[in-house]
Amino acid sequence: MQSYSLSASAKINLYLEIIGNRADGYHELAMVLQSVDLADRVDLRPTVRDFIQVHCQHPEVPEGPRNLAYQAAALMMQKFPNFSGVEITIQKQIPIGAGLAGGSSNAAAVIVGLDLMWQLGLTQSELQELGSELGADVPFCITGGTALAVGRGDTLSSLPPLDHLYVVLGKYRSMAVSTPWAYQTFRKRFGHSYAQNVETLESRRERVHAGPMVSAIFQRDARQIGHLLRNDLERVVLPEYPEVTQLRDRFQQLDVLGTMMSGSGPTVFALTQSRSQAEQVRETVGAAIASPDLDLWVAQMSSTSIQPL
Ligand code: ATP
User: Fold this and answer.
1) Is any ligand 1 atom within 6 A of the Cβ of residue 175?
2) Alpha helix (H) ranges present in 150-264?
């Protein structure tokens, strides 16, 4: 059996609308998800013995069963018991607790990598189904690109690629937001405005499906996409993190297509038409804020997520 090295991309949300409650306790969402080429490296090595080992030097990433990559390997070994264990080495580039689905993309890399290593020949939808047992973001991280996601965020429809666009991502190293906290707080504060029955839920979901963001993406209309960025979770996260709001305001003042928090934050991104424009924005914002706690990256939108290296 062969070893595999994969790159596992981060994702941003170009659109995140909270529609209502679901019977399973999750939120009903309508999102546009986008892979970006800020990526972790995940190495998989077959072992002769029947156990999983995770190595990751990042101090905030657990190496045992709490690691999502570990959980992905455990799931695969349970579903395909004829194969022995795996040693997983993760080199993190994607910041932790950042709203960029770093853990989910590592889990996706393990599922895709073990499918290759064990020569299972699973289809994309079989891989996604396995991923959805681990978390709502994992199915998207398996396929990547640009997608409309409804339900918990794991019912996906592909959209045309946007890899002509770039982002500047900004995150304060010392800040992390818990995704469950963000959604629970949103429910407490804004639950009264949720769709109250199946018909309203369905019609609001349809409205996004046939809505202006999706048509702007079909038309590859970068200005409109920038104009239509939306993330409902900003309403609960931004008031708690004034520095994040300031960073967002800084981006907004520059010549960018649009700016928004990604997922449950606290990463904020600014959308640009070219790499040189993104580099310029990164330089200007870095100089203006001049905080050693602030990390800024330039990334290109990507049409894939998990790629063998
Ligand atoms: P999402 O956008 O899906 O909410 P996130 O980017 O906000 O994800 P992660 O970086 O995935 O959050 O990490 C959230 C938590 O998961 C952290 O507390 C971290 O310790 C834990 N974790 C478990 N496995 C991993 C992994 N492989 N990589 C990063 N974090 C992991």
Assistant:
1) no
2) 179-190, 198-209, 212-218, 222-228, 234-237, 242-253
Identify whether residues 125 and 154 lie together within a single domain: yes
Residues 154 and 20 in one domain: yes
Identify whether 11 is a catalytic site residue.
yes
Query: Do 136 and 193 belong together in one domain?
Result: no
Annotated catalytic residue, options 37, 40, 115, 137: 137
Regarding the beta carbon of 264 and ligand 1, being less than 6 Å apart is answered yes
How many whole angstroms separate alpha carbon 170 and alpha carbon 107? 24
- The set of long-range contacts for 80-84, using a CB threshold of 8 Å and a minimum separation of 24, is 80/114, 80/118, 80/120, 83/114, 83/118, 84/46, 84/47, 84/48, 84/49, 84/50
Percentage of the chain exceeding pLDDT 90: 89
Q: Is residue 112 situated within a structural domain?
A: yes
Nearest atom in ligand 1 to the alpha carbon of residue 71 is 24
Digit-coded pLDDT (tens) for 251-295: 999 989 999 999 999 999 999 999 999 999 999 999 999 999 999
- Residue closest via CA to ligand 1's atom 3 equals 101
- The pTM (predicted TM-score) of the whole model is 0.95
Number of domains the chain is built from: 2
* Residue located nearest, by CA, to atom 11 of ligand 1: 103
Check pLDDT > 90 for residue 166.
yes
81 part of a folded domain: yes
Taking every pair of C-alpha atoms in the chain, what is the biggest distance, in angstroms? Answer: 57
The residue to mutate among 44, 75, 96, 141, having the most atoms of ligand 1 within 8 angstroms of its beta carbon, is 96
Evaluate whether residue 309 is within a structural domain.
no
User: Measuring from atom 20 of ligand 1, which residue has the nearest CA?
Assistant: 61
Instruction: Name the residue with the closest Cα to ligand 1, atom 15.
Output: 97
Q: What is the CATH number of the domain that holds 251?
A: 3.30.70.890
- Give yes or no: residues 110 and 176 share one domain: no
CA dihedral of residues 49, 53, 55, 59 (deg, nearest 10): -160
Ligand 1 centroid–CA 67 distance in Å is: 8
- Of the three residues 107, 137, 159, the one that is the final residue of a domain is 159
So what's the pLDDT on residue 24? 87
Predicted pLDDT at 85: 93
